[in-house]
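Case study B.
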Amino acid sequence: MKDNNRETILHVENLKKAYNDNVILENVSTEIKRGDVVAIVGPSGCGKSTFLRMLNLLEMPTAGEILFEGTNIMDKNENINHLRQKIGMVFQHFNLFPNMTVKKNIMLAPIKTKLMSKQEASDKADELLKRVGLEDKADEYPDMLSGGQKQRIAIARAMAMNPDVMLFDEPTSALDPEMVGEVLNIMKELAETGMTMLVVTHEMGFAREVSNRCMFFYDKGIQVDCPPEEFFENSKNDRLNDFLSSVL
Amino acid sequence: MKKKLFFTVFIIMLIAGLAACGKNETKNTVFSKDDLSGKKIGVQLGTTGDTYCSDMEKDKDGTKVERYNKGSDAIQSLKNGTIDAVVIDEQPAKAFVEANSDLMILDEEFTVEDYAICISKDNKELTEKINAAIDELNSEGVIDKIKKNYIGDDTGKYPYETPEETTYDNGTLIMATNAFFKPYEYYENGQVVGIDADLGQAIADKLGMKFEIKDMEFDSIITAVQSGKANIGISGMTVTEDRLKNIDFSTPYTTSKQVIVVRDNNAIKGNTNLADKFKNDFIKDNRYQYILKGLANSIIIVFFAAIIGLVLGFFSAVVRSWHDKNGGLNILNAIVRVYITVIRGTPAMIQLLIIYYIVFASVDVSKMVVAIVAFGINSGAYVSEIFRSGIMAIDNGQFEASRSLGMDFFQTMIFVVLPQVFKNVLPTLANEFIVLLKETSICGYIGLNDVTRGGDIIRSITYDAYLPLILVALIYLTIVLVLTHLVNKLERRLRKNER
Ligand SMILES: Nc1ncnc2c1ncn2[C@@H]1O[C@H](COP(=O)(O)OP(=O)(O)O)[C@@H](O)[C@H]1O
Ligand SMILES: [Mg+2]
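Model:
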């Protein structure tokens, strides 16, 4: 995936985020191409989540510009709800709706945003449940599922909107170790379908094998952004090498 | 559930029974006007008796004046021994003593005074018309006949009848009164009757107007007339300096005097058993109807007020959460905050009175509507805070997940957040409506016949406090228990949905 002819899906320019006077991120610029699988790593508290959450405006950037498929998402005239439909997000703590069955969780947004009819949403949910291997859990409530199952449902729920890009914020950090694999497998399968993905993760194996780009966040911005081979074997960045030796 | 109910009923009956039996007979110690000093005197709030006795309260002997909203409440307290004497107008005093063999009127009297009709100062034209009508009615002997029909040996022989040729082209004459003042105004078979009621009818007939009586607290009558809720007030009202400052009076239509009612030490205690009391309180003249109609009104009020409360509370809570989460909506949020602060910071009774006498002053709406609106607005403020804290308790991740899927704020609220909130706050919400139900017992202040006032009317007729009060208490208790039961059931069903 080295070719540079793929179209740009996300264009980030001089992005800045500050809470009051406390600057978290500054001068962050990057381009994400369609089909990119970006692993985002870095020490805790360096602003990885903040960066990801600004991409669908769960956090408002303090300054800078984000173009999603050519549209300035911070433009007040753009309907952010329409844009968000195309940007799926998976959270560390799943955030499934506890008062609905698994299938209802998946069907809710496509129906309420009028993306699909009830029948279409139901078919889509069945297809996705099969894909994440949980078709037998359709009528269970989330509380009955294990953490790994919950996260697979959360992925299916985000996928139901047919997004163009998927954001993952530490999707396996809240899981017991034996469940990490099942979620990473689903994500790997997703990557193989060509889905554009940005994944904040501490799973270096996943970063190395599945991603085509690794980003190292440190000191208010992206310090390293390169293919995984270079990232893990040949980096000249001391901070990154320190970080890698501490997590590997 | 049933066992609990029976147990509670049993306890209440027991307490009431003990209270009734264990009561000591308090001997009468007031035999003349001079004996009043240093005693506890009951009066009806805002009457001339109140004015006279309030002067006595200033002496150094510790005279104490207890002011009651109804004459009949003062009489009940006298019977119970809570107070030593009641100073009240002569005719109601006679009616009370007639109905209560253990009471008597002292021979010594206060000064003679005039009863007149009160009319708004802004309506001189009506005052003139009414004066003319009173003159005519006097010269035709109609007023004498009306009085004779209620006072003296020939009661019931001269019922007032509307002249045949009467037309009703000039609108409606609304009379404010406090129907706990026999023989001037009192309830009989669900109707307000009495000298004042007939006089009002006779005047309306003279003026060619339809006639309507609004029953309310005595101290509300002048306000009602001032605010236009009623055109005239006829309620055995004495002309006084203070009243003249706020209101105009017609020429007097009768005279009365204040008398002193005390317990009769020589009276033979009639031993009425509970069954007789029950018959007298509820069966005779279909008196249970007062409670039944009141109950229907109470339920209607609570039902619609709860709906208004839910809608208002829901709306306010959403506005405030929107403001907290997204910023914006500043003005709306400020309005909602003022609304919640004011409503939660003032008594429901004052709100009810304000809505009746000020907000709806010039609009003629039914009291039911007033009560529904008042209690709806009141409840909305509490419901809003319940919803809001319920919304705050929902994990922010729920909002974020929903918004990240492209659902807007309202879709997120309605389909994701509020169903969870509703389940969490259901017990608190149910509690709020139980409080609301009990709160509606103040409806009597605007003269609305709710279940509490139904009991009050029976008390004012039979002078028996125990059974009507206990029945009313039991009715509230039963509704509360049923409501609690239903809510528990609903709660269990909602829980089951999740497991
Ligand atoms: N709402 C907030 N208010 C103030 N500071 C915040 C807020 N959210 C995050 N931060 C701060 O921003 C920094 C970056 O947080 P985050 O993006 O969650 O880091 P990461 O995901 O890389 O661990 C942290 O220092 C955190 O304390
Ligand atoms: Mg994070």
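Residues 158 and 217 of chain A are 25 Å apart (CA to CA). The remaining cases will be described in the next quarterly update.
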